[in-house]
Design goal:
two-stranded antiparallel ribbon, 8-stranded antiparallel beta barrel, about 230 residues
Length: about 230
């Protein structure tokens, strides 16, 4: 029995590949309101090594707004948020042996400067004014607590843009340079290198669609072709 790949199958392959890569291709977040911080997006950061550990695949998201208010010319926001990452040992400043997944939760405050209305569109200089996330992980020597907070010696500044999309949705783009420090088991806070945090759409939506298309590929891409030879 021979197998063939049809044009339709190739189109399905292309669509699945596009959706699986979509968070990287479409950096702007599409949401149905202009409000900040963007609750349907995540900020992605490069790997960071601090003290005896390294964090990889870092995302800050799951924003749950506690309070937002206009104070003078600025918008002030307080939110609960989560940081997810993979935790590794620190091998001379590079990720070493994998230790465990990591989830930290806590409060993140952001100020959007010269934003005088909650629904205002535009481009705003922004600053993370408070950042304190805590959690725990299990390593070779047992369970340890970990806390990440802003480095008070450096400002964590960025730019956030909100633009009406013309169809009842808004495009949000945002980036910060975050300067943080980490403490393990209540020890001294150790500053880490500044890291760019760039907003991306939450990947769950694209992964689900990509998974459906992948299933279609498995069923339809390679289809048996009958051999007419007798």
């Amino acid at each position: 029995m021979r197998y063939s790949i049809t044009r339709r199958s190739l189109r399905i392959c292309s669509a699945a590949a596009l959706l699986l890569c979509a968070p990287g291709l479409f950096a702007d977040l599409i949401q149905n309101n202009p409000f900040l911080p963007p609750v349907d997006g995540v900020y992605k950061l490069a790997d960071t090594c601090v003290s005896v550990v390294c964090l990889g695949n870092i995302s800050i998201g799951n924003f749950q707004v506690i309070e937002t208010a206009i104070a003078g010319p600025d918008e002030l926001t307080r939110s609960n948020a989560k940081l997810t990452a993979n935790l590794f040992s620190n091998n001379l400043g590079n990720p070493g042996a994998f230790i465990s997944p990591l989830v930290l939760s806590g409060q993140v405050n952001i100020t959007y400067f010269d934003k005088t209305a909650l629904a205002q569109s535009g481009t705003f200089n922004s600053q993370i004014t408070f950042f304190d996330l805590t959690g725990a992980f299990t390593g070779p020597t047992g369970t340890h607590t970990i806390e990440a907070k802003l480095n008070p010696a450096k400002d964590s500044l960025g730019v956030t843009s909100v633009a009406h999309n013309g169809n009842g949705t808004w495009l949000v783009s945002s980036s910060f340079q975050i300067s943080s420090e980490i403490s393990i088991d209540g020890g001294t806070f150790v500053p880490g290198p500044g890291r760019d945090a760039n907003l991306e759409p939450e990947p769950v939506y694209y992964a689900a669609l990509g998974g459906v298309l992948s299933l279609l590929i498995a069923i339809r891409v390679i289809k048996p072709k009958r051999n007419n030879a007798t």
